[in-house]
Amino acid sequence: AAEEGKTRHDYGRDAFIDKIWQWKAESGGTITRQMRRLGNSVDWERERFTMDEGLSNAVKEVFVRLYKEDLIYRGKRLVNWDPKLRTAISDLEVENRESKGSMWHIRYPLADGAKTADGKDYLVVATTKQLAGIALAIFGVLVLVEGSLGGEHVPLVGFMLTLAAAFSWAC
Fold it and tell me: Per-residue pLDDT tens for 136-155?
């Protein structure tokens, strides 16, 4: 993939999995030979590849069992995302460091006579990237009583920001 200048995202899931199996066919033997030359002491009759059907099914079965026993769960939590690799990474792989930055509170005037439920004709948004925004997502708490959601509503530095709504039953 890399030698073709492509990433896994360029292939799609099925084509990428085909590439993985192709790589395994070409390189799997080399890895095993290297391990043998290094003197690894393993039961070579039980050698497995991560994506072997039996191994993959066993992993799924264990995950389902652990989920049913409430030992693993799905929940809302912070996920460490690597934008370059385009994948989630483990907490153990993250190097936290504090840095000084600025929090900007920007007062965005509403366009077309729109007002908030408490009569304001503006929204105040706290952000660390004051000019990076191209849209404003409003989560269930704010209700506009005049004007509509959607479309362009907030004028700023020569262009209009899109005002969108996100609602949740948890509000």
Answer: 666 554 444 444 445 454 45
Tell me the residue length of the chain: 171
As a whole number of angstroms, the distance between CA 43 and CA 110 comes to 69
If one counts the domains in the chain, the total is 2
pTM of the model: 0.44
The domain in which residue 18 lies consists of 2-69
Given 20, 49, 69, the domain boundary residue is 69
Strands 152-156 and 159-166: what pairing?
Answer: antiparallel
- What are phi and psi for residue 95, nearest 5 degrees? -105, 105
The first and second tokens of residue 123, run together, are 């929204």
Contact 136, 159 (CB under 8 A): no
